Amino acid sequence: MSNKKTTGDSDKTNKIQSQQKEIDGLYDQIESSRFDLPMLKIAERVLMVPLVGAVDSVKSQKIMEDVLDSIKPMSLRVVVLDIAGIKVVDSAVAAHLIKIAKATKLMGCKTIITGISPIISQNIVNLGVDVRDIDTTSTLQDGMQKAYEAVGLKLVQFNE
Amino acid sequence: MNSLNSSVVVIDNVAVIGLQRDDLEIANCGFLVSKRIKEESISKTAINIESFEYITSENVYALQKLIDVLEISGISVCVCGFDAVSASIIFTFVDDIYFSTALDVRNAILELNS
Predict the structure, then answer these.
(1) Which residue among A65, A105, A108 sits closest to B88, beta carbon to beta carbon?
(2) Which of A48, A133, A159, B31 is least crowded, fewest Cβ atoms below 10 Å from its Cβ?
(3) Are A21 and A79 contained in the same domain?
(4) CB-nearest partner of B101 from A68, A69, A108
């Protein structure tokens, strides 16, 4: 009788432990999918978002939501998306970037995609992604210049 | 012939239309809006869709049709009032949008007068 009870308790404990393990796994999944996106206001009505690492559909959705949510409160006119830190730009990532650019345009905000390396531009062309309506530059510096011009600002060098 | 529920206000030589969803469902909506704007002798209009709680692909197609009618009549159009939620989901259902957009009425007026 006592043995039977002990076996029953042990089964319950094992079940609870396995459920706890499952819950911990789910928490880890949630934590790994959560990330902080740096949103840098670099001038009045200009936002810069540096993207680093791998961009999957969850991350790109988060980027789009964060950028779109910032447009109205910050009265943004230009969003600069720097993709120099993204290692792989496949068709899905390119499609996501284009979707972000189109969505921001809908809210009256222009998107400039900067940091496009030769290999990424080659990939985008090979994938047949149409980027004609989107402003792109190879360097962040060129992108910033375009962004400033779009809001009527100009970078001027002071001579000492 | 139906009449419009949408409001029309003239600000800085721009007819600002507070578009109501029901009006988009009227078959001759383009004609009615165009006639209303021409009555004000104005050639620029900002269509504000802020009152739309959500926007469907049918709404976007109807809006495009309305804008095409206005542009054929020589009226410049800028659509404003899209919210972040609509903007984030609309391109799941619609390939592209071929009209000028602005954040709000103020920006739409600035855009049309620039």
Answers:
(1) A65
(2) A159
(3) no
(4) A108
For the segment B5-43, what is each residue's pLDDT rounded down to a tens digit? 889 999 999 999 999 988 888 888 888 999 888 888 889
Q: Which of residues 10-49 of A touch B (CB under 8 A)?
A: none
Q: In this predicted model, what pLDDT tens digit does every residue of A102-133 receive, in sequence order?
A: 999 999 999 999 998 888 888 888 877 777 77
Strand, helix or coil for residue B31: helix
Q: What ipTM was estimated for this complex?
A: 0.83
The residue written with tokens 């809210």 in the block is: A107
Residue A75 lies in a domain: yes
What domains can you pick out in chain B, each with its CATH number? 7-113 (3.30.750.24)
Task: Give the pairing type, strands A46-53 and A40-43.
Answer: antiparallel
> Alpha helix (H) ranges present in A34-153?
57-74, 91-106, 118-126, 140-150
